[in-house]
Design brief:
Blueprint: H1 5-12, H2 16-23, H3 31-44, H4 50-57, E1 62-66, H5 73-76, H6 79-94, E2 98-102, H7 107-119, E3 125-128, H8 137-143, E4 148-151, E5 162-165, H9 168-181, E6 187-191, H10 197-212, E7 221-222, H11 226-239, E8 243-246, H12 249-261, E9 271-275, E10 289-292, H13 295-312, E11 318-321, E12 325-327
Helix pairs in contact: 1-2, 1-3, 6-13, 9-10
GO molecular function, one term: DNA-binding transcription factor activity
Keywords: DNA-binding, Transcription, Transcription regulation
Protein name: LacI family transcriptional regulator
Length: about 350
């Protein structure tokens, strides 16, 4: 014989509507009542019918994770997104929710995927895992008043969006200062993306550190086309840098491979510092000096914020900043001690 809501209500001495509100975590029910009713549910072995519950509420009890267009091998294999998915999935699971992933090769297809997920009520809200200045997704979500949170800093409408981020400008500044404190003066900033806000913020931080140290600020070295990899060797001969700030660990590994091809050794010829402290940082020697952005905390806070929005049925806004930490390893040496 299966246990029903009526059975739980009778044992708890409350109305069936109260039990339903406890199941839906409704804010009108006190925490004391919720704990008591949930304890009785556990004792009786009652399992809520989530399908019926969701149909009645017209919700899916699911969160949509929106990944950026996976238009390159670097993005496709970037552990940042894999770690973010894992964290969001675990945090959602603890709240009795599932996740669905929206991805595509370009923004047009990605937007269609998101529209379909929203219109078919496959998810109740979204978490964007990136911030891109050509992104049409945020505009759609805002126009349709779809609950969402953003991992990263938005390009505009900051006052209307809930987002969680590191202080990426400070990250860029501190990474560059670490090189400067090791007596490097000719420092280049290297990136394979120029559209995402994380690039602008980290490059601004590099510029600030260089200017404060009265050192020459160089344009960012960008890898957007195949010929950029070929031209990099000539650029190194012209600029003669002693250190590089690279946009993230995965691309830093690619740069180290490229430098080896050009007969440069890291860190003997060039010191390198990067960001994210991903699994790639310790895959091969030399181990990468990297800034840990606490991916797990980024995903956790973004998920908790979205669930809070969904439970309260309110469109809130605000910024949450996750602390970072410099992890010193083997790719930076003191230039004066070479």
């Amino acid at each position: 014989m299966s246990i029903t809501v009526k059975d739980v209500a009778k044992r708890a001495g409350v109305a069936t509507s109260t039990v339903s509100r406890v199941i839906n975590n409704h804010p009108s029910i006190s925490e004391e009542t919720k704990k008591r009713v949930r304890a009785i549910m556990d004792d009786m072995g009652y399992i809520p019918n989530l399908t019926a519950r969701n149909l009645g509420k017209q919700v899916s009890n699911a969160i949509g994770i929106i990944l950026p267009p996976l238009d390159s091998k670097e993005r496709l294999g970037n552990p940042f997104y894999l770690e973010t998915i894992e964290t969001i999935n675990e945090e959602a699971r603890q709240s009795g929710m599932t996740v669905a992933i929206a991805t595509a090769l370009n923004f047009d297809s990605l937007l269609e995927n998101v529209k379909q997920m929203h219109r078919q009520k496959q998810v109740d809200g979204f978490i964007l895992t990136y911030s891109d200045n050509h992104d049409p997704i945020i505009r759609y979500l805002m126009d349709e008043e779809v609950p969402f949170t953003l991992i990263g800093q938005p390009y505009n409408h900051e006052q209307k969006i809930t987002y969680v981020d590191n202080d990426n400008q400070l990250l860029g500044k501190q990474a560059t200062e670490y090189l400067i404190n090791h007596h490097h003066q000719k420092i280049l900033f290297v990136t394979n993306t120029t559209q995402e806000n994380v690039y602008f913020e980290r490059y601004f931080g590099y510029q600030k550190a260089m200017m404060l140290a009265n050192l020459e600020v160089k344009p960012a070295v960008t890898f957007q086309h195949p010929e950029d990899y070929v031209n990099f060797e000539e650029l190194l001969k012209i600029e003669k840098p002693t250190a590089l700030v690279v946009i993230d660990d995965l691309f830093a590994m690619r740069i180290i491979q490229l430098l080896n091809l050009y007969k440069y050794q890291v860190p003997d010829d060039l010191s390198i510092i990067s960001f994210n402290n991903s699994i790639f940082a310790t895959l091969v020697h030399p181990y990468l000096t990297s800034i840990d952005v606490d991916v797990a905390e980024l995903g956790k806070m973004a998920t908790q914020s979205l669930i809070h929005k969904l439970n309260d049925n309110q469109q809130t806004s605000g910024r949450m900043v996750v602390p970072h930490k410099l992890i010193k390893r083997e790719t930076v040496i003191d230039f004066e001690q070479k």
